[in-house]
Amino acid sequence: GLGERLLAYAHYSTANFVNFGDAWLSIFPFYTLVDVYNNQIRRKFGYSESESGIYIGNLNDVNDNFNTPELIVNTTFLDPRPDNFSQDIYEFSPTQAGSDARGFNDYTDTNGPLLSQLVAISGAATKQLLKQTITDPTSFSNEDITLSDGGHSDNLGAYSLIRRGVEKVIIIDAEHDPDYKFGAYYNLQDRLGYWGYSLYIEGIEQYKNRKNRNLKTPYPFMRGKALTPNGDKIEIVYLKAIKSDYVDCLYDQSMVGNGQVIRDKNRTLLNNNKDENGKWQSNILANEIIDYDALFANHLETYPLLLETLWRVKLSNLFNSNDTKLDFPQYSTFDQSFFNDQYFAFVALGYYSAKGLGSFIAQEDTRCGFE
Question: What domain range includes position 354?
Answer without folding.
Answer: 247-362
